[in-house]
């Protein structure tokens, strides 16, 4: 069975400082891993996806994530936060490439202050 | 760009009413999904469909049903709404064999 744990429900940063959103996963197989972002009153948008190619995955808006199998982690980072990054972020794991049954984390709210 | 459109952004219904939430996608995706989103719980899968007239239960199907009469349209039905179904409902679609979802903007349902 697969599961995902987002270690922080809220993260607060100042504009211009680095962002780190933490995610640990559990999977019996080689998983696919994703980060989605949800801005207020919007649907979820794919930030990036890992599918067993390069362990460092680059996404949109300057975000990237590193797959570390030994630590079962897939943390999301950005060197310098922007006010527009304030949103909720979801880490997602999938063992199945067929019918797209995904397991979502509970989300991390990123707050960015001026 | 793929578009997933949820026709109602905000609904307020009374306990016991029948509620229809409609979702339409315009990119010929085979798979469609309904999720429920609650604070602190993330997204939970209610039902999904991999073809017209086909449906599969997700993690929390109780109190819900779905209909997929056309490939582009996937409806979520609450036969008798209850207050614990007050939530944000998200529709998504995906190409068959792919696990990247495209989401609609959501329908926020309040049941009084």
Describe the structure.
The complex is a heterodimer of chains A (114) and B (112). Chain A is mainly beta. Chain A is built from no helices and twelve strands. In chain A, the strands form three sheets. In chain A, strands 2, 5, 6, 10, 11 and 12 form a six-stranded mixed beta sheet that branches. Chain A has a four-stranded antiparallel beta sheet with strand order 3-9-8-7, with no helix packed on it. In chain A, a hairpin with a 5-residue loop joins strand 7 (56-58) and strand 8. Chain A is globular and about 40 Å long. The relative contact order of chain A is 0.33. Chain B has strands at residues 4-6, 10-13, 19-25, 31-38, 42-49, 56-57, 65-70, 73-78, 87-94, 102-103, 107-111. Chain B starts with a strand and ends with a strand. Chain B has a single domain (4-96), classed as Immunoglobulins (Immunoglobulin-like), CATH 2.60.40.10. With 112 residues, chain B is mainly beta. The model of chain B has no long low-confidence stretch (mean pLDDT 93). Chain B contains no helices and eleven strands. Classes of the chains: A mainly beta (114), B mainly beta (112). Chains A and B meet through strand 5 and strand 6 of A and strand 4, strand 5, strand 9 and strand 10 of B.
């Amino acid at each position: 069975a697969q599961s995902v744990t987002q270690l922080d429900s809220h993260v607060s940063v100042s504009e211009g400082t680095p962002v780190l959103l933490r995610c640990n996963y559990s999977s019996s197989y080689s998983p696919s891993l994703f980060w989605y972002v949800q801005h207020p009153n919007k649907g979820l948008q794919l930030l990036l996806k890992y599918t067993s190619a390069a362990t460092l995955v680059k996404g949109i808006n300057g975000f990237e994530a590193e797959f570390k199998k030994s630590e079962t982690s897939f943390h999301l980072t950005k060197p310098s936060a922007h006010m527009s990054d304030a949103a909720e972020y979801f880490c997602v794991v999938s063992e199945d490439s067929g019918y797209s049954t995904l397991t979502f984390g509970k989300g991390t709210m990123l707050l960015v202050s001026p | 760009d793929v578009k997933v459109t949820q026709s109602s952004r905000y609904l307020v219904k009374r306990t016991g009413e029948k509620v229809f939430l409609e979702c339409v996608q315009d990119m010929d995706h085979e798979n469609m999904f309904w999720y429920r989103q609650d604070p602190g719980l993330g997204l939970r899968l209610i039902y999904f469909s991999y073809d017209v007239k086909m449906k599969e239960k997700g993690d929390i199907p109780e109190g819900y049903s779905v209909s997929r009469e056309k490939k582009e349209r996937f409806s979520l039905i609450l036969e008798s709404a209850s207050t614990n179904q007050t939530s944000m409902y998200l529709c998504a679609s995906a190409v068959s064999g792919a696990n990247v979802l495209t989401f609609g903007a959501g329908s926020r349902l309040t049941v009084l």
